[in-house]
Amino acid sequence: MKHKTNQTGMTLIEIMIALLIGAFLLGGVLQIFTGSQQTYQMQQNLSRLQENGRFAIDFLAHDSRMAGYRECLTYTVPTPITGTNDTGLNSSDTITIQLSTGACGASVLSTIAYSVQADVSGQPALFVKNDAAAAQALIEGIENMQILYGVDTDADGSVNYYVSANNVADMSKVVSIRITLTARTLDGNLTTIGDGRIRRDFTTTIALRNRLP
Questions:
Q1: Does residue 15 form part of some domain?
Q2: What is the pTM of this model?
Q3: 3-state SS, residue 102
Q4: Looking at the domain assignment, is residue 25 inside a domain?
Q5: Which of 26, 51, 110, 126 shows a CA-CA span of 20 to 30 A to 135?
Q6: Is residue 34, in this structure, part of any structural domain at all?
Q7: What is the pLDDT of residues 42-91, one digit of tens each?
Q8: Residue of 89, 61, 48, 38 lying closest to 200 (CA atoms)
């Protein structure tokens, strides 16, 4: 009697089917990995954008509220707040704040200036300049800053209208400012629009405490 032998190994067709199934599985894994990486990059950039915008607004609000502050009441602050219109990077505005610190007889006039400039990496950033020191990059990713000045024409402590710096006839009548910052993501290729960056506007209105009655 002849003994029937069992088949061993795999045929070429079976190997090709196994390779094809493996390629499909590997492609799915790579697609999931790529999607997760893109989602992480997007979330990371959006989170940093929100933080940059919020911190920039906080710094500007804190210093703007100090405009015209006098630790010694007999001392006069010459120009508590001034600004320029569309003179910075990307036609951004600038703002300069003055305050006085120190006891009477030893008062020191401090000047704080904010502007939008390009940092060492070429990214737009919010810069701050304290007194005679060189301007320093404070918050990265701030692309534009627009400031409107609230003018009180009847001295009742309420704003009658908001205008840009070049349209303010008398800065001593400014009692509040409205700041709008445009922040952008540091990375590109996040969208299919324009340069692939995401942008958000952050707006706040700040009362100048030392100008209010």
A1: no
A2: 0.81
A3: coil
A4: no
A5: 51
A6: no
A7: 888 889 999 999 999 999 999 999 999 998 888 889 899 999 999 999 99
A8: 48
